[in-house]
């Protein structure tokens, strides 16, 4: 998954925890082997190489995962789009000198729509055009957390805290000393402070952002988050955290909401049960956590 | 020269004894067993080891001073000093308070009765003849690195040691350095996973002129005193600086290289010197593992560095540090665990970047060994005296030094010819 994984099991003895951890590790590796675009033998890599030229039959698991992504494309009106990676590459290939930039509009027009075709009868996937390239970076960690949750169910693990890179978190039960887990939204300008606290029993928190903290402590936009409606990198420096019962929902919505206007985020969350979005825009003078 | 640091011998014995029973000691550093095997040196006058020093210039004087701190505990004495440069000859006699007999010609020194060992710290081109003469005279030798200026001389030194059965030790003192000993033990135990690359070098900003002499570069006196600058006498920084790391690399890889390529030039100090002021080498080891070594004496930004890169971590020997590829948990996770262990129910601010620049590792790492107050030159000299007393030394000690010297000269040849050098069969031992 290209990030660090932590599994905290407060009540377990070492041997049992080790046993459960190995089960979890194997499951994460299994998922990665199917959906990573970095592994040449994964099903996603196979699709990216060949699904434009012909329909490609995939496993039921990958087929259903892509259907879920398709569903959230609709729900977010295109804000969650797993096929816009070529736009990121477009910007990576151009310098910051605007004289050398060409307009990404042509590429955008080929990618900002449903360009992945499903054939339920044959369980095959095909792409609309040769530019389409699937990247499940905004889905995979949430999906893996859901599968880990099932394993912890199997072994009756009551309390747990699971983290992928501290940006995708799943909790079970409660934090020792309390009745739930307290997950804070970090204030990146005051890292020991929380701008908001999610109180969670069984559920997930996912945070997406478009910056990193430089050596001088300043927040710098890495311009790796592309707005699928404009084709341009998101310019404001933002974190978007979503809590939801399902880690897949939290993961996907934190990615999608980063590029959506706040009123559109609200119109989505008001129709969803137990979903809370918290946005922090560090580009504004007095930044604060906005609960959407 | 090494800086003089207080020797904490008890700590060193703890380190060596901690690995004394392991397979790593037997396989990788058998020469250290002398420290755990030897007891207190017998104190009688008849048990006293008699040492002479040939060459008491800059390095030779440092060796003399180091030896003087050991004489009482190890029951040996410095009975002779030799240098053909009169001011050094006189200085050395003075340093021993006149107790050592002075010689201007080492051959006269070798005729002394009951001379057990000599320490040789002369220019590189003189090592071979002096070492061979001493060994043939039945005298044990500690010779500064590298072994010799020419390949055939290195081989002849090695062969003479075999013929005479006397001890020949080369001054690669990293073999006695606690950082290297403990680090290499960990590497050989697989602590940083399979090795993938070695990266080393030495960058300084100085003219490398040891003495200002009348007549300047090219004069007879300059050739004698600043011998390091002249191709006839020296392999330049390849032998004087690089050979230390070539020896350490062979030790770490438990093998000699398969090949070496490189380039070198004089690009800054155009003062009449004949040896490079900069060079870059790539050694290839079995398993397709490369070691890079680069050196300049006109920029010091990078300093000295020796890094061993494994798939799971990196040893930074120069800074006594080891780094894991998986750094410790981030503060938020540590805080979470801390709170859970203490039943503290507080909000933990959390959130990791979803993308990070591919920057060098910046966390602090861990120390390879603590309390480093040891002087590896002293430990090497102590071992020499102990080896003389017990009358033997593990073969591997000389073999690794032989190979380091051979590959030092092959590296020089690679830079001079622009060709990839492999080991000529006549130098296989």
Folded structure, characterized:
The complex is a heterodimer of chains A (292) and B (429). Chain A has 292 residues and is of the alpha+beta class. Chain A is 33% helix and 24% strand. Chain A has eight helices and 14 strands. In chain A, helix 1 packs antiparallel against helix 6 and helix 6 packs antiparallel against helix 7. Classes of the chains: A alpha+beta (292), B alpha/beta (429). At the A-B interface, strand 7, strand 8, strand 9 and strand 10 of A face helix 13 and strand 14 of B.
The count of strands of chain A amounts to 14
Helix content of chain A: 25-40%
- Structural class based on helices, strands and sheet pairing of chain A: alpha+beta
Q: Which sequence of strands runs across the widest sheet of chain A? A: 1-5-6-9-12-13-14
Residue-averaged pLDDT of chain A, rounded? 89
Keywords for this structure?
heterodimer; A: 292 residues; alpha+beta; seven-stranded antiparallel beta sheet; three-stranded antiparallel beta sheet; 14 strands; B: 429 residues; alpha/beta; eight-stranded mixed beta sheet; six-stranded parallel beta sheet; disordered N terminus
Give a brief outline of the structure.
By secondary structure, chain A is an alpha+beta fold. Helix content of chain A is 33%, strand content 24%.
Write the layout of secondary structure elements.
The complex is a heterodimer of chains A (292) and B (429).
Chain A: E1 5-8, H1 14-35, H2 43-50, E2 56-57, H3 60-75, H4 85-93, H5 105-111, E3 116-119, E4 124-127, H6 140-154, E5 160-164, E6 168-172, E7 181-187, E8 190-200, E9 203-209, E10 211-213, E11 219-221, E12 238-244, H7 247-257, H8 262-269, E13 276-281, E14 289-291
Helix pairs in contact in A: 1-6, 6-7
Chain B: H1 9-18, H2 23-28, H3 33-37, E1 49-54, H4 58-68, H5 71-74, E2 76-82, H6 86-95, E3 101-103, H7 106-109, E4 117-120, H8 127-136, E5 140-143, H9 151-164, E6 168-170, H10 178-188, E7 195-203, H11 220-225, H12 237-253, E8 259-265, E9 278-285, E10 289-296, E11 304-310, E12 313-316, E13 321-324, H13 331-341, E14 348-350, E15 366-367, H14 376-390, H15 395-417
Parallel strand pairs in B: 1-2, 1-4, 2-3, 4-5, 5-6, 7-10
Antiparallel strand pairs in B: 7-11, 8-9, 9-10, 11-12, 12-13, 13-15
Helix pairs in contact in B: 8-9, 9-15, 12-15
């Amino acid at each position: 998954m290209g990030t660090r994984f932590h599994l905290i099991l407060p009540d377990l003895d070492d041997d049992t925890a080790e046993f459960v951890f190995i089960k979890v590790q194997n499951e994460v590796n299994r998922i990665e082997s199917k959906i990573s675009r970095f592994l040449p033998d994964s099903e996603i890599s196979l699709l990216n190489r060949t699904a434009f030229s012909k329909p490609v039959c995939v496993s039921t698991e990958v087929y259903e995962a892509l259907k879920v992504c398709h569903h959230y494309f609709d729900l977010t009106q295109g804000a969650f789009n797993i096929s816009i990676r070529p736009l990121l590459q477009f910007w990576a290939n151009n310098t910051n000198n605007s004289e050398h930039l060409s307009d990404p509009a042509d590429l955008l027009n080929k990618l900002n729509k449903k360009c992945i075709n499903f054939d339920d009868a044959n369980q095959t996937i095909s792409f609309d055009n040769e530019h389409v390239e699937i990247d499940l970076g905004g889905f995979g960690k949430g999906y893996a957390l859901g599968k880990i949750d099932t394993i912890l169910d199997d072994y009756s693990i009551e309390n747990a805290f699971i983290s992928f890179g501290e940006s995708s978190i799943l909790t079970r039960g409660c934090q020792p000393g309390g009745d739930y887990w307290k997950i804070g939204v970090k204030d990146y300008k005051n890292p020991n402070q929380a701008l908001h606290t999610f109180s969670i029993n069984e559920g997930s928190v996912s945070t997406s952002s478009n910056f990193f903290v430089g050596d001088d402590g300043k927040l710098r936009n890495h311009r790796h988050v592309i707005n699928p409606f404009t084709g341009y990198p998101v310019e404001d420096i933002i974190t978007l955290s979503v809590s939801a019962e399902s880690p897949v929902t939290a993961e996907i919505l934190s990615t999608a909401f980063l590029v959506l206007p706040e009123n559109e985020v609200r119109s989505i969350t008001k129709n969803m049960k137990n979903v809370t979005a918290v946005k922090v825009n560090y580009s504004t003078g007095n930044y604060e956590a906005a609960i959407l | 020269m090494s800086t003089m640091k207080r020797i904490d011998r008890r700590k060193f014995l703890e380190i060596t004894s901690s690995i004394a029973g392991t397979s790593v000691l037997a396989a990788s550093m058998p020469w250290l067993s002398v420290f755990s095997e030897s007891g207190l040196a017998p104190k009688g006058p008849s048990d006293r080891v008699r040492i002479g020093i040939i060459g008491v210039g800059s390095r030779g004087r440092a060796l003399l001073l180091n030896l003087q701190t050991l004489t009482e505990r190890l029951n040996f004495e410095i009975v002779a000093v030799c240098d053909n440069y009169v001011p050094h000859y006189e200085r050395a006699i003075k340093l021993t308070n006149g107790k050592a007999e002075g010689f201007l010609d080492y051959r006269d020194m070798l005729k002394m009765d009951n001379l057990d060992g000599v320490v040789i710290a002369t220019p590189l081109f003189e090592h071979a003849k002096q070492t061979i003469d001493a060994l043939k005279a039945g005298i044990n030798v500690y010779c500064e690195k590298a072994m010799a200026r020419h390949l055939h001389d290195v081989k002849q030194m090695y062969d003479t040691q075999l013929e005479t059965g006397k001890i020949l030790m080369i001054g690669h003192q990293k073999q006695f350095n606690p950082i290297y000993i403990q680090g290499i033990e960990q590497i050989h135990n697989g602590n940083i996973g399979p090795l993938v690359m070695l990266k080393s070098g030495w960058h300084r900003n100085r003219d490398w002129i040891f003495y200002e002499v009348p007549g300047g570069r090219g004069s007879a006196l300059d050739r004698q005193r600043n011998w390091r600058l002249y191709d006839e006498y020296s392999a330049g920084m390849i032998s004087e600086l690089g050979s230390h790391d070539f020896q350490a690399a062979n030790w770490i890889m438990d093998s000699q290289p398969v090949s070496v390529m490189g380039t070198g030039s004089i690009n800054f100090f155009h003062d009449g010197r004949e040896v490079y002021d900069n060079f870059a080498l790539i050694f290839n080891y079995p398993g397709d593992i490369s070691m890079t070594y680069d050196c300049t004496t006109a920029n010091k930004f990078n300093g000295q560095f020796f890094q061993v890169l494994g798939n799971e971590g990196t040893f930074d020997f120069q800074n006594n540090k080891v780094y894991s590829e998986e750094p410790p948990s981030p503060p938020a996770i540590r805080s979470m665990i801390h709170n859970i262990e203490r039943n503290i129910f507080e909000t933990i601010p959390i959130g990791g970047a979803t993308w990070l620049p591919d920057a060098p590792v910046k966390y602090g790492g861990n120390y390879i060994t603590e309390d480093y107050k040891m002087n590896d030159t002293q430990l090497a000299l102590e071992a020499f005296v102990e080896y003389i007393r017990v009358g033997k030394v593990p073969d591997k000690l000389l073999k690794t030094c032989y190979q380091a010297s051979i590959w030092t000269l092959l590296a020089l040849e690679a830079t001079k010819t622009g060709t990839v050098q492999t080991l000529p069969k006549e130098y296989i031992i």
